[in-house]
Amino acid sequence: MLGDLVQSDPAACRGTMSAEEDARWLCWVTRQFKTIAGEDREIDLQEFKTALRVKEPFFAERFFALFDSDGSGTITLKELQEALTLLVHGSPTDKLRFLFQVYDVDGSGSIDADELRTVLRSCLRESAISLPDERLDELTRALFESADRDGSGAITFDELRDELQRFPGVMENLTISAAHWLRPPDAHPHPRLHRPRLLTRSYWHNHRSQLLCLAVYAGLHLLLFVLAASAYWAHGASIMVAKGCGQCLNFDCSFIAVLMLRRGLTWLRATWLAQVLPLDQNVQFHQLMGYVVAGLSLVHTVAHVVNFAFRADAGTIQFWELLLTARSGVGWVQGTAPPTGVALLLLLLLMVTCSSACVRRSGHFEVFYWTHLSYLPMWLLLIVHGPNFWKWLLVPGTMFLLEKTVGLVVSRMSALCIEEVHLLPSKVTHLLIRRPPLFHYRPGDYVYLNIPTIARYEWHPFTISSAPEQRDTIGLHIRSQGQWTTRLYESFKALDLRGCGSKQLSSSLRMRSQKRPQASEMSSENSRFCNIKCYVDGPYGTPTRRIFAAEHAVLIGAGIGVTPFASILQSLVCRHQKRKRVCPSCQHTWMDSRQDEDMKLRKVDFIWVNRDQRAFEWFVSLLTRLEMDQAEEAQEGRFLELHMYMTSALGKNDMKAIGLQMALDLLARKEKKDCITGLQTRTQPGRPDWSQNPKPEPFQGPVCHEACWR
Predict the structure, then answer these.
(1) Alpha-carbon distance 378 to 293, whole Å?
(2) How many structural domains does the chain have?
(3) Could you tell me if 399 and 414 lie in one domain?
(4) 76 in helix, strand or coil?
(5) What per-residue string of b and e applies to 543-569 under the rule 16 or more CB within 10 Å gives b?
(6) Are residues 162 and 236 in the same domain?
(7) Which residues form the FAD-binding FR-type domain (predicted)?
(8) pLDDT digits 0-9 by tens, 7-58
(9) Which residue, 50, 150, 160, 235, has fewest beta-carbon neighbours within 10 Å?
(10) Does any domain span residue 183?
């Protein structure tokens, strides 16, 4: 396929091939041509479009017209080889002329404004960017006026070349991208040998606490297995294996609950143990222990089945009686071990299956939620099944029961009220919940939410998106992805504003007018004022609690995963304003660190990666307010830098987007804002270049004016 004719080394397409390499490349092109063309040995337009795999037919049609040198309506092998030779062996000027011919739709030798507008419209569609016609006209005008230096009303080849040279790196990228989709294979590939990531020194350094815990966990299992198996040395190998696995299961099935003690983990995060224990990986360890339990249970079952088979051959009891009845006499309660073991294995397989990612992330969270509650009957069956399990469960089970009881009592003692709802783009629901007087949380914390009108018994975790400094309400941003979240969005979308009483609506409006306007507020058409009862369990801590202890933080979010940073960024602004001091004599500003001793953060780089344009819309208003606050500060007082990326947009290394990206750059410089998001920060196409990670800079704030303030 033409789209597969890609080489990993871009420098190879600029070099000169030897005669042997050129012959090998021509043979390779011939084979690819036969694959595309089929029996007729010619490529028509439809086959060419399929091979290029482009969204917008304009570029496929233009490339096809340029490749079809004789205008026959098909591309022969000779025409393909000639075009590829130009793109691969040609000079930068030849490749630039090819781009010019793509833009020169009518072949007049110049590009007029209508042709440029047609090209830019196709570029927008290819990059999945939706802009109104007025913005398209402005983009066309910006690029056309910049390139048409002589004011003749048309862009010549020389003017296009001069315009490209004004943008650093564009000419080089053009040289690469012109043959990007039609490069020859490397005749002498030199694959770089990379060590597996798990064997790198940096991996061991960054994950030393997790690896240490895994080593302790594995060593403890080995010790438990050996001690239990050695006690049954005289009973045979199958009994030894069964007893060894059973002892390990006693530990796993009781300790697995400790990893989900959310209140306990939140408390531990505030202690020095957070620097030693991998508390942030509690869910991963919980999943690991679940798989270990499943594996040990299978081995434990197989070992007992083998033992039952030997007993059935040697005695009068049949195999199925040993496996499914109480005649074996094994178990804490006489003879109940085999039937309870079968029930436990079936429950465990059900839990493991319904806990898989394909179930949880495919909109069936409720299946995972309800089947996971099987841990209660499993514990009861384990107490009956194993004579010593209750001893292992005594302490972890008591802790788990206390946490669940406290959480249920606290959450049910006082029902909260959803005062206001905003329906945001990308099917995001923004809830404003009345904040209880003693509800204290930190930026990035999350809560479990229960709304009886949506589902009486379901609790779902959501990150708090409002700042702790906001005293009146708690904000949650919820994207519709599963059944519960979709029902939530649809129920508020169908909510009739007339259903709210006039007094209630007036009260909500007065309350809203007294509060500070939130950056995420939408127009009244998308707002719902209501008084819906809900329950909140939490707050619970996350790794973001340690963010203010660093001097330079890099926040990386993708899609709706940016919600923790909404709270963090708003809290940063509030703390920044609290620390800000102004000299009454010279009006100089500086930061007084004594006002917030826990706040060591001086520089924040916020990187947000989204798939499409609409994913930015619900969060842009908050970022706009942050940019406005930063614009009021002096250059040395600005601590926040935004980096926005859109993965569906094609970059400047793609011929189908060079003109669009140039126009977006020109218009952004002119209007001081981005066309896609409306922010001052330019939205970059593609993904971040992690080799250019933000680096910490020394803070150079003045300190001499502190005495002047005093």
Answers:
(1) 12
(2) 4
(3) no
(4) coil
(5) ebbbbbeeebbbbbbeebebbbbbbbb
(6) no
(7) 411-546
(8) 333 333 434 445 566 666 667 667 767 777 767 778 888 877 777 666 778 8
(9) 150
(10) no
Residues 378, 253 contacting (CB under 8 angstroms): yes
* Residue 531, CA atoms < 13 Å, CB-side half-sphere: 12
Range of the domain at 686: 546-709
Q: What is the pTM of this model?
A: 0.70
Q: Is residue 196 part of a domain?
A: no
- Please give the single-letter amino acid code of residue 199: L
**Which of 485, 508, 542 marks a domain boundary?**
542
307 shares its domain with 381: yes
- The percentage of residues in the chain with a pLDDT greater than 70, rounded to a whole number, is 74
Residue 120: CATH number of its domain: 1.10.238.10
Distance, CA of 379 to CA of 252 (rounded, Å) = 12
CA–CA distance, 85 with 183 (Å, rounded to integer): 10
pLDDT digits (tens, 9 = 90+) for 634-682: 665 577 888 888 888 877 767 777 888 888 888 888 888 888 888 888 8
Per-residue pLDDT reduced to its tens digit, 359-410: 776 667 778 878 888 888 999 999 888 888 889 999 999 998 888 888 878 7
Do 534 and 567 have their domain in common?
no
Residues 495 and 640 in one domain: no
Residues 391 and 414 in one domain: no
Conformational region of residue 167, where left means phi above 0, alpha means psi within -120 to 50, and beta covers everything else: beta
DSSP 72: S
The CB density around residue 334, as the number of other CB atoms within 10 Å, is 10
Indicate the pLDDT class of residue 513, thresholds 50, 70 and 90.
very low
Residues 530 and 552 occupy one common structural domain: no
Residue type, 370: W
d(CA 426, CA 393): 45
CATH number of the domain residue 449 falls in: 2.40.30.10
State the average pLDDT over residues 448-466.
87
| pLDDT given at position 292 | 94
312-345 per-position pLDDT tens digit: 666 666 666 666 666 666 666 666 778 888 889 9
In this structure, are 121 and 262 located in the same domain? no
Phi, psi (rounded to 5 degrees) for 316:
-95, -10
Measured CA angle at 281 (ends 276, 287), to 5 deg: 135
**Alpha carbon 61 to its chain's center:** 36
Nearest 10 degrees: Cα torsion 519, 522, 523, 527: -120
Q: Starting at the earlier edge strand, list the strands of the sheet with 683-685.
A: 552-558, 603-610, 640-646, 683-685
Q: HSE of 257 in the Cβ direction (CA atoms, 13 Å)?
A: 24
Tokens standing for residue 550: 């660093």
Strand 552-558 with 603-610, pairing = parallel
Query: Is 191 among the domain residues?
Result: no
Give tens-digit pLDDT for 194-250: 555 667 777 787 888 888 999 999 999 999 999 999 988 888 888 899 889 999 999
Alpha carbon 129 to its chain centroid, in Å, reads: 21
Q: Which of 511, 526, 542 is the last residue of a domain?
A: 542
